[in-house]
Amino acid sequence: MSKGQPRLLVPEIDPAALGGWRSDLPMVELGGATMGTRWRAMFATPAACDVDSVAKAVERRLDQLVSQMSHWAADSLISAFNRSPVGQWMSLPADFAAVIGEALDVAAATDGAFDPALGRLVDLWGYGPQPVDAPPTEDAVAAALHLGGWQQLRFDPAARRLQRVADVRLDLSGIAKGYAVDCLSALLAGRGIGHSLVEIGGEFVGRGMRPDGDPWWVDLELPGSLALPLRLALHQCAIATSGDYVRGRHTIDPRTGKPMAHALSVSVVHRSAMLADAWATALSVADPAAMKALAETNNLAARALIRQREGLVEWFSPAMSRMLVD
């Protein structure tokens, strides 16, 4: 870390999270492909840890999640739901139910800036599995908006079942990857691995600390040299970043049906990668004033690079500002 580089530190260290830490534990790094990107896990290996078994368990868990929530896979559960007759209830496995429950909560809290039922808009703009030759017409966007979004879903959490009351389509891209990161971190913990860093495509969960006594340092994703680099000590928390500087302006406002242009990058630190993922997406959609209000009202640790008339503006929420140290 360069001298004077700004850092982000969690307000408190959890003493219980340091149990089992030893400086002589060997570090292992695993990785592979998933969800159109890469996954990575670094961890301190406790005694009798079967690394090959851990790697296979991670791959199985990822395959399980993809088979449920990837709209890119025609045989996935989400694809089957999107093809199902309107009005038909579908029973959900625990993972899917957990994600849709949180997705609907964030949708309600953001007045639809986050919407798990924007699949038709995603497909119209060619951001889904089928490419398109040209942007959609105004009439096509209006027709998709007319069908509605998340409010056309009925979720019964007790029975773990979901229903569409209009022909909307699910797209969980703004939350499922974060959930997968949480799942891998939990999988490691379940195998006695309490000191780990897990990543899928730039979304991270850090638990415990490194064998060398350092926290799990990660650099916030930055578009080139447009802002000062920031380094975060991930301790019992997660970070997710949403933005358009890698893939272009692909974040759609579910309320207008059009891609957003003002948010270059939004990062959120949260206890859960799933919720960091969803909130980073929602804040990217909200206009700058609404973004700031949402972050402050929900006590979110957020950092944003916002395009404004005067140029690129960097903004830290109060919760994120409290984490900053020189």
Automatic annotation (TrEMBL):
Record's keyword annotation contains Hydrolase: no
Signal peptide boundaries: none
Pfam families: ApbE
The keyword ATP-binding is annotated on this UniProt entry: no
Organism superkingdom: Bacteria
Residues reported in the UniProt entry to bind Mg(2+): 174, 277, 281
Protein name: FAD:protein FMN transferase
